[in-house]
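Need residues for this backbone.
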């Protein structure tokens, strides 16, 4: 191996190491930066973050020029999409930038990817199918972040709905043991951190609003707006009315948690009742053909080998 060839390999190795080091420094923040972000975001936010907690900031910085093409003309605070971001648990400043930047990037990237694939594969399409394919891919790329956001909202709402009856039982126990409503909300928010981080985060925000001086009714209405669940909206109305008219809060929590448990049980029974119908199509098209082949295959082979030649001979 010559000296020039060895020098070239060393230079390539050095360039690869430098690029990898820069990428790691940009994508993975240092330990000190993670601790500072954890202190700035609070305990509930810090528990949900991992090693790549600096990744959304990097994506926001990269997608900032692309996000301007999809940002709404009106103020971001007045758009209904901001409430949907709250429903999905996205409260960071980088979330809208990544969302709108992904819309712009995917709108142009998917058609370009199709053109590259057609170029390298050598396939040729006429003008009309090519234009239809490009427009279809552009539409899919534009609405794909919407589908991802809807999926995040649905998953978060399901987690909140499943954990809410247990939180109400804990809140009732706290109220019956002598704690006030504000202290009970703060206590339940800390206790639910292991079972449901999303619900713990919502209760923590309610507790912060109460500490900041907001009324209990306004804090509970903000909770219902962020969660966007009918059951939590009903709970908010019930607690506001109980606080206004002086009725028993513990009894109201007991009745509401029982109704939520019954609703959760009915949803599980409904899903179980739909299971045979959902299994019918795989049984017909996947299981039954294989079963019939195994059972009737030897008989068909025997008829073909023995009976058909004899009938042909007669």
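Answer:
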């Amino acid at each position: 191996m010559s000296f020039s060839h060895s020098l070239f390999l060393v230079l390539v190795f050095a360039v690869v190491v430098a690029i990898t080091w820069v990428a790691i420094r940009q994508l993975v923040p240092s330990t000190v930066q993670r601790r500072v972000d954890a202190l700035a975001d609070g305990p509930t936010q810090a528990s949900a973050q991992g090693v790549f907690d600096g990744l959304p900031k990097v994506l926001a910085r990269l997608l900032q020029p692309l996000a301007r093409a999809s940002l709404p003309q009106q103020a971001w605070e007045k758009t209904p999409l901001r409430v949907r971001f709250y429903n999905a648990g996205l409260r960071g400043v980088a979330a809208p930038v990544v969302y709108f930047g992904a819309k712009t990037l995917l709108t142009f990237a998917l058609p370009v990817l199709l053109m590259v694939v057609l170029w390298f594969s050598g396939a040729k399409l006429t003008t009309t199918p090519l234009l239809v394919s490009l427009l279809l891919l552009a539409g899919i790329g534009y609405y794909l972040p919407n589908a991802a956001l809807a999926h995040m909202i649905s998953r978060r709402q399901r987690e909140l709905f499943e954990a809410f009856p247990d939180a109400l039982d804990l809140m009732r126990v706290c109220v019956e043991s002598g704690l006030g409503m504000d202290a009970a909300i703060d206590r339940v928010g800390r206790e639910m951190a292991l079972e449901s981080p999303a619900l713990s985060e919502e209760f923590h925000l309610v507790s912060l609003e109460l500490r900041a001086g907001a009324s209990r009714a306004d804090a509970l209405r903000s909770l219902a707006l962020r969660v966007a669940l009918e059951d939590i909206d009903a709970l908010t109305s019930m607690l506001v009315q109980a606080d206004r008219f002086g009725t028993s809060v513990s009894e109201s929590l007991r009745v509401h948690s029982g109704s939520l448990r019954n609703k959760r049980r009915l949803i599980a029974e409904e899903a179980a009742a739909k299971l045979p119908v959902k299994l019918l199509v795989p049984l017909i098209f996947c299981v039954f053909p294989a079963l019939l082949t195994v059972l009737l295959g030897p008989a068909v082979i025997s008829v073909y080998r023995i009976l058909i030649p004899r009938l042909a001979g007669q």
